[in-house]
Amino acid sequence: MYEPKVIGFLCTWCSYTGADSAGTSRLKTPWNLRAVRVPCSGRVAPELILRAFDQGADGVLVLGCHIGECHYDSGNHRAAKRIPLLLSILEFAGMQPERLRLDWVSASEGDRYARIVSEFVDALRPLGPNTWRISGAAPRTGAAIGVPLPLVSGLSGGAPCP
Amino acid sequence: MSISETMQSTARDLLISGQVQRVIGFEASPRGRVRPAIIDRPEEAERLVWSADCTHNLTVYLQRALNRDNGHASREPATPPARVAIVVKPCDSRAINVLLAEHQFSREQVFAIGMACEGIRQGAPASAPEATLQERCLRCRERVPVVHDVLLGEPPSALPEALPDEALAHVRGLPPAERAAFWLNQFDRCIRCYACRQTCPMCNCPTCLFEQEDALWVGMRIAPSEKRAFHLGRALHLAGRCVGCNECERVCPMGIPIGLLNRHLAETVESLYGHRAGMQAVLSPVTGMLSAEESAP
Question: Does the interface predicted TM-score (ipTM) exceed 0.85?
Answer without folding.
Answer: yes
